[in-house]
Amino acid sequence: MTAVTGLPPMMVDRKDEVTPMLGQYVELCEQHPDALVLFQVGDFYEAFCEAAEEVARVCEVTLTQREDSTGEYPMAGIPIDNAASYLERLVEADYRVALADQVEDAEEASGLVDRAVTRVITPGTVVEDELLAAGSTTYVASVVERDAADGDRDGYGIAAVDASTGECLVTTVPTRGDVREELDRIQPNELLVADDAPTVAPDGDWMESAVDAELFDSTVARDRLTEYVADPDRRLDNHAEQRACGAVLAYAEYTQGDNGPLEYVSRIRRHDQRDQLRLDAAALRSLELFDNRGPGSGATVFDVLDETASALGRRCLDRWLRRPLVDRAAIEARLDAVESLVSDGVVRSDLSDLLAEAYDLERLAGRVSRERANARDLRALHATLSIVPDLKELIADIPALSDHHDRLDELDDVATLIDEAISPEPPMELTEGGVIKQSFDDELDALRTTEQAGREWVADLEAAERERTGIDSLSVGHNQVHGYYIEVTNPNLDAVPDDYTRRQTLKNAERFYTPELKEREDEIFGAAERADSLEYDLFCEVRETVAAETDRIQALATAIAELDALCSLSIAATEGDYVRPEFQAASDDAQISIHGGRHPVVETTQAEFVPNDTDLAGGDVAIITGPNMSGKSTYMRQVALICLLAQTGSFVPAEAATLPVLDRIFTRVGASDDIAGGQSTFMREMSELTEILHDATDNSLVLLDEVGRGTSTADGLAIAQATTEFIHDELDATTLFATHYHGLTELADERAGVHNLHFAATREGDDVTFLHRVAPGASSASYGIEVARMAGVPTPVVDRARDVVKTTTGDGDAGGDDVDSEGADTPTEPAASVPTTDDAIADVLAEQALDAEAVAAVVDELHELDIATMTPLEALNTLDSLRSQLDEE
Ligand SMILES: Nc1ncnc2c1ncn2[C@@H]1O[C@H](COP(=O)(O)OP(=O)(O)OP(=O)(O)O)[C@@H](O)[C@H]1O
């Protein structure tokens, strides 16, 4: 592969011979060895040599040849005006893109225009609005293992910064498993690793960027941190945190053009995993909080709760849901606020309407501070500030929002300054005037008056000169090259007065100027030019004054964001008919009592969702059996989600709920349920199970969904049973275990804290109806055969399966009728020792007129499949083709 970053290979031998401009390009490439340099030439960003070929390929733009005295080079360009979509493609192709802009006016430059890299765009540090989804976060993160400097204590420092908003998160976690958990929550787009050492972070959905190991050096990192916080040793817990944080800040600075500390990164927030309800990656995924890869609706829990009106609120709600609380007072405070808004529909809807007018203050503050805000950004800031008094008034009488009320800083000084200084509808460009309002600056007003008077004089000139010369067709005009002129057609040239000087000859006319016109022209353009540049200076002054208030703007942004998140929760609660959860007294055991609980997402997709109760004392283990598709997984997840929503400060989908404050939620979904994740194997399932068995406490909630089914029935049942016993006897963690191993249900007879629950179904003839209702006791039938029939398995196979069940279980009526009876426990799974005779197989084959060889071929193919790496679609297609093979027989 040819190198597209660093010194272009084509240039290695000729870099001293090339033209000055290409020399400048080569030099910038060498200075940014890891980035693809885009080089401004007029209205385009150009890439040359090998990089040009890559830009042409990725961006689908034309590859051309540049020819100069020193040779020919490939060249590809993207228009600067429309660069965003091309940059997005390059970043998606995992490139860091360095933008080398012309940093002096081409007209003023003597010789080569100076260029410098003003931004390096990388997946984790994007700040351009056009490249960012509204309300999203974009983090670059790094992980550093603690070492001798930290007294050789175990653990890892983790830091992440969002370069668009200035948010910076720091934490320390004890184990590698915790690193994974933390990164899964942060979901960085980019992870920094030192270029001299292997990373300690797990693989993930992020781009890994190797950076100079020096950025991670303790002293370098600490020095950098002192630019951001007064006393890094007090603000951050240990060396590993400082090194991780120093590295991400250094990288963020580099991507913003290396102009020193990023003033707007002023909120370095440490948090401790223990201060939040912990959710491991499996829980985040299987509870479908943010990501729903399953078939069907595709909606996530976040989607259901997200009624936010602003990008600020959306980001805040996302943060809250990723990190539910464990501090009871803080949870109750959020619930109080949500309740007050639930109970007042008028305030709720007015608040939401007002919040919809809020611009993304966090990103605006970032842009102002980075000196990238234009006049429209300042106007957007003003528009947002102008809703603050109304917001305050709206919530003034709501005690639960008094803290937010106090934190809503109207920033009068900033609002007044912007309003007095910036035009109401300014242009995007800052250098072409129209930015500063009249009456803001006397000198500017005087210049604009001169310019205006001059233009008026010119406007009147045509009539005056027509009268003076008697030439009716005389006209006054202006063009870029020659400026103002008086145009007289050829037949009238005789009447031209003496003070006219020829400026330009056209085919049918001559153009002239007079000394006075020339004088006025100089005056007009001189004044306009000075005014434009004065406007720019004044704008920068205003922007600087506003930038000095970044902290206050960010604090206001946080208060507005929280209000929006609370308002969103109250809208979701009202629309979803949720109730306020109660919490157990801290001294009580971790009892979960839910009356009429529902799954917040599934209930939105079902015409009639059946609510279910849950009553579990702390440490109880509920073994849940029931047919496939009867609702076991939905039920378990709804219990976890109700607990999680409650700790987020949300109302919950239930008629009533009294809950404990959980420390962790674990979920483990059996191998074959998680094929879409692409990596579940029995081994993985077991190692994740190990984590639960190590880490769950008597305040944890554990969901086990068909754990153990990735292996033989006998082994699976043995593992499931041993796990259940261990959780019950040793960990005392409240547990829901959905299983098809009916043998497990016998544990309920042996252990007081183990209960059986089941999902019933009724059968009429061959049709099974799922009731989706949970009831005490074990299920007596799995209806696997009925479900197989409903899924289209051929009748002879279904009939034969019924016969096999009958012979192996001695059950004359396999599957039972209505099985909604407590404690009935007839194992319907074939036990591990089921004698599946060759005769039986031969019978089935004969009935279906299938050839044993053809079947064997299909079986071979089935064995060959690497199911763990297949997408569901591939799996379906493969199934289809296997069935066609048999059909053809
Ligand atoms: N309480 C309910 N009310 C109405 N419909 C429900 C309810 N619970 C589940 N369902 C519907 O039944 C479908 C299957 O539910 P679920 O996946 O929970 O079954 P399961 O018993 O876990 O199945 P399996 O054992 O095959 O994994 C859901 O997708 C949903 O459409």
Automatic annotation (TrEMBL):
The keyword DNA damage applies. Residues 700-716 form the DNA mismatch repair proteins mutS family domain. Residues 807-837 are annotated as: Disordered. InterPro entries: DNA_mismatch_repair_MutS, DNA_mismatch_repair_MutS-lik_N, DNA_mismatch_repair_MutS/MSH, DNA_mismatch_repair_MutS_C, DNA_mismatch_repair_MutS_clamp, DNA_mismatch_repair_MutS_core, DNA_mismatch_repair_MutS_N, DNA_mismatch_repair_MutS_sf. Keywords: ATP-binding, DNA damage, DNA repair, DNA-binding, Nucleotide-binding. ATP binds at G626, P627, N628, M629, S630, G631, K632, S633. One of its GO terms (biological process) is mismatch repair. Residues 814-823 have a biased composition (Acidic residues). Gene3D superfamilies: 1.10.1420.10, DNA repair protein MutS, domain I, MutS, connector domain, P-loop containing nucleotide triphosphate hydrolases. One of its GO terms (molecular function) is damaged DNA binding. The keyword ATP-binding applies. SMART domains: MUTSac, MUTSd. This protein is involved in the repair of mismatches in DNA. It is possible that it carries out the mismatch recognition step. This protein has a weak ATPase activity. Belongs to the DNA mismatch repair MutS family. PANTHER family: DNA MISMATCH REPAIR PROTEIN MSH1, MITOCHONDRIAL, DNA MISMATCH REPAIR PROTEIN MUTS FAMILY MEMBER. This is DNA mismatch repair protein MutS. It comes from Halonotius aquaticus. The gene is mutS.
